[in-house]
Amino acid sequence: MKVLFFFYQWLIALPILLVLTILTALTTIIGCFLGNGNIWGYFPGRIWSKLFCIFSMVRVEVRGRENINKNTSYVFVANHQGAYDIFLIYGYLGHNFKWMMKKSLRKIPFVGKACAAAGHIFVDRNSPKSIMETLHKAEETLKDGMSLVVFPEGSRTPDGKLHRFKKGAYQLAIDLNLPVVPLTIDGSYAVMSRNTYLITPGKMILTIHPAIYPDPQQGHDIQELMEKSYETIASALPAEAENIVKKS
């Protein structure tokens, strides 16, 4: 069975998904140029992500969608298990959002231009000026239900465990006084970890936890926010994916 899937992945699924990626990127670029970027910057990518999971024979379960309101702007913070985290959140979260991503991702052919056209937020962590520009763009973008998705670990886990959270991922939530929604991703590491280019069919679970709202008078306390979101995300992971190393 594994041999059959290996040939299916490289000879059938991969060519189809490559074509779908190019078509989705072009649709996003042209659609955002001609019309509403919040629509064209979200729905083509959502369909593309679902098709990626379907052609990869990856099943998805979503828990807790009742915890979010489509008219409320949030900062979603999620653990980062593998490459399929992108498809899981984009395809199945069910809430319009922008990604916060590394500036270097703009160089990916087709995809980088599509992300820029869609209004996703690129960050150059080495430039204080760029960080301020990011904040100003976020202030203009995150309203009327538009949200942001961030991976506070910064990169995919190398071993399947939950690792340190970085403070910078929470800065926009604090500066803009937005509620934070922890997301737990389970199963993505087994589907495709950072250590392989091979897909393993399986099941991914996305758990949407209740939002953490800022105090009406004082806003968020960053240390408390990091601890609470970390513990909430960890609570929906199997024991082997937890880690004694916590936030920093």
TrEMBL record:
Transmembrane domains' residue ranges: 6-35
An example Gene Ontology biological process: phosphatidic acid biosynthetic process
GO cellular component, one term: membrane
Enzyme class name: transferase
EC number: 2.3.1.51
Listed pathway(s): Phospholipid metabolism; CDP-diacylglycerol biosynthesis; CDP-diacylglycerol from sn-glycerol 3-phosphate: step 2/3; Lipid metabolism
NCBIfam families named in the record: AGP_acyltrn
The protein's name: 1-acyl-sn-glycerol-3-phosphate acyltransferase
Organism for this UniProt entry: Coprobacter secundus subsp. similis
